[in-house]
Specification:
- With 346 residues, this protein is mainly alpha-helical.
- The chain contains nine helices and three strands; from the N terminus they run αααααααββαβα.
- α1 packs antiparallel against α4 and α4 packs antiparallel against α5.
Length: 346
C-alpha cells in the first residue's frame, strides 16, 4: 500500500521518538547501577570527595526520570489546549536538571567544608578509586552517546542529560586524580578541598543548563537555525520572490516554528500570490521533514523595492534593477520599520 505524504513526514518523528525513548531508558538503567557502585566506593573509603560524586549521581538518576517524562510528553501532537505542541517541556526538563545540579553543588560544598575542618583517614582507597574509575568510563561512553543522539534527534533533554553525565566524568576524574595525592602528601584535608572543587565545577554546569532553559522558554533567537533557513531560501530563490523580511524562527523539541514576510510583485493576482507563498512553505516543510509550523505573510512590492527586484519585464518599475542582493540573516530578519527602504540593502 502506498505511503501517504503525511505518513511519510511523520515516520522520521516516530523513529526519533523511539530512539529518544531507548536512549533515556538506557541512561536510567546505567545511572542506577553507577549510583550503587559509587556509594559502595564511598562506604569503603569514607571519602567526602567520593560522596560528592555519588550525590551527583543521585541527581543524574532523578533528572533522567524527569527527562523520560518530558520526552514522552514532547512527542504528543498539538491539541486544542496546546496548539503549538508540547515541545517546550524539554526546556522545563533542562531547567529542572540544572536546578538539581545546583542543589547537589550546595550539598557537596557542605560536606567538603566539614572534611576540611575535621579531616579523617581514608581506608581502602585503592579499591574505592578502582570502582570510581570504572563508573567514570561507563559515564563517559553513555554521555557521548546521549549528546550525539540528542543532537541527531533534536532533543534538548537528551543533550542536557548527556552533558550532565560528561560533567560527572570530569568530576570523577578530578576526584581520582586528587585522592591519589592524599597518601602521597599525607594531607587529609585534600579530600574536602577536592569535594569543594567538584562543587564549583558542577555549579557552573547547572547554571548553564538553567540559562539554556530560560532562553528556550523566552523564545530567544537561534542564530544557527536562522542561518539554516536563510541559506535554504537563498538556494531556492525565484524571480518573483523580490524580498523577505521579518523572518523569525524558534525551536521546541524537534518542532520548528517559522514566520516571515514575503514581498511579491503587486500585479500578481491572489491565486498566483498564494501559489508563490505555498512554494516557500513546501520548501521549508520538506527541509524540516514536515515537522515545522510555517506562517507566511504576503506583502506587495512598492517603489523602494525596484532596485533589488530582478523581474526582467515589469511595467510598474520606477527604478532600474541593480545587482541582485545576496540574502543573509541580518537582512531577512530586519523589519520594515527598521529599514523603510528595503531589508536586503543592509
Amino acid at each position: 500500500m502506498p505511503t501517504s505524504s503525511n505518513d511519510a513526514r511523520t515516520q522520521p518523528q516516530r523513529r526519533y521518538f523511539r530512539v529518544r525513548l531507548a536512549a533515556i531508558g538506557l541512561s536510567i538503567v546505567v545511572g542506577i547501577a553507577l549510583l550503587a557502585a559509587k556509594f559502595c566506593a564511598y562506604h569503603l573509603t569514607g571519602s567526602s570527595a567520593i560522596l560528592s560524586d555519588a550525590l551527583e549521581s543521585i541527581i543524574n538518576v532523578a533528572a533522567s526520570g524527569f527527562a523520560l517524562i518530558s520526552i514522552v510528553t514532547a512527542a504528543r501532537p498539538p491539541d486544542e489546549s496546546h496548539p503549538y505542541g508540547h515541545g517546550k517541556i524539554e526546556f522545563f526538563s533542562a531547567g529542572f536538571e540544572g536546578a538539581l545540579i545546583i542543589l547537589a553543588a550546595a550539598g557537596i560544598f557542605y560536606t567538603g567544608i566539614q572534611r576540611i575542618l575535621h579531616p579523617q583517614g581514608l581506608p581502602n582507597l585503592g579499591e574505592g578509586l578502582a570502582i570510581l574509575g570504572g563508573a567514570a568510563a561507563a559515564n563517559l561512553l553513555l554521555g557521548i552517546f546521549l549528546v550525539r543522539t540528542g543532537k541527531k534527534t533534536d532533543s534538548l533533554t537528551l543533550v542536557a542529560d548527556g552533558k550532565h553525565l560528561l560533567t560527572d566524568v570530569y568530576t570523577s576524574a578530578g576526584v581520582i586524580a586528587g585522592l591519589f595525592l592524599v597518601p602521597v602528601t599525607g594531607w587529609l584535608r585534600l579530600d574536602g578541598a577536592i569535594a569543594c572543587l567538584v562543587g564549583i565545577n558542577i555549579l557552573v554546569t547547572g547554571v548553564g543548563l538553567v540559562r539554556t532553559s530560560f532562553a528556550g522558554l523566552m523564545d530567544e533567537s537561534d542564530p544557527l537555525l536562522l542561518e539554516e533557513i536563510t541559506e535554504l531560501l537563498s538556494r531556492h530563490r525565484k524571480e518573483n520572490w523580490i524580498d523577505i523580511h521579518q523572518l523569525r524562527a524558534w525551536k521546541a523539541g524537534n518542532h520548528v516554528h517559522i514566520d516571515l514576510h514575503l514581498v511579491l510583485p503587486q500585479d500578481l493576482d491572489l491565486l498566483r500570490a498564494h501559489r508563490e507563498a505555498k512554494q516557500v512553505e513546501l520548501i521549508l516543510a520538506n527541509h524540516f521533514e514536515g515537522n515545522a509550523g510555517i506562517l507566511i505573510h504576503i506583502d506587495p512590492c512598492t517603489a523602494p523595492d525596484c532596485p533589488v527586484c530582478q523581474k526582467t519585464r515589469c511595467e510598474m518599475r520606477s527604478a532600474a534593477a541593480q545587482q541582485a542582493v545576496q540574502w543573509n540573516t541580518a537582512a531577512l530578519t530586519t523589519t520594515r520599520s527598521e529599514d523603510p527602504v528595503h531589508s536586503g540593502t543592509r
